[in-house]
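input
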Amino acid sequence: MNYELLISFVIATSALAISPGPDNIYVLMQSIVNGKKYGFATVAGLISGCLVHTTLVAFGVSAIIKENDLLFFMIKLFGASYLLYLAYKVYKSNSKLHIGSQNIPKKSVVQLFKQGFVMNVLNPKVSIFFLAFFPGFLFSSSLSTVSQFYVLGILFMLVSAIIFSVIAILAGWISNYIKQSNRIGLYLKWLQIIVFIGIAIIIFISKK
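output
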C-alpha cells in the first residue's frame, strides 16, 4: 500500500474541490438562494453521480490495464495531456469570479438532489476527468484494480462532499468575500493550474 500516493490524491482532490468550477459554484448559488439544507441536497445529488462515473471507469480501465502495458501507457499519456490541456484552459480564462443569484429559480430538496445527480451523470467530462485522474494514483500491488478505483472514487466523493458542504454552510460569507476581494479569483486560478500540472506529472511518472 502506497499511503503517500493516497495522501497526494486527497490533497489534489481537495484543491480541485476548492477551486471554482461549475459544481461548487452551483452549490454556492443554491445555498445562497434557497438555504443550507438545499445546498446539502445539491451536494448529495452531485456526489451520488460520481459513483456512476467511478463504476464506468473502474471496469473499463481495469480490463485495459490487465491486458496491455502499451494501452496503459497510452492512458497515462492521455491523462497527463488532458490535465495539461485543462491547465492551459484555466490559464487562458478570466480570473474574475461572477457571483449572481438573482436569476436562480427556487426548487425543492428532491428536485435539487435529482438535478445535481443528473447534471453529474450526464456530463461526459466527469468520466473523462476520472479516466485521466485515477490511473496515476493506483496505490496497491495486492488489491484488485477495480477495488482500487472504488477506493479512489469513494475518497474523491468523501473529500468533495466535505468541501462542498462547507461551501453550503459558509455560502453567505464566501459570496461576500468573493465580491469584496479582487484577487481571490486570481489565486484560485493559479491554484487550479498548479494542481493540474502537478497531477499530470504524477500520472505520467506513475508505474503499473
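quick obs: The CA atoms of residues 167 and 173 lie 9 Å apart.
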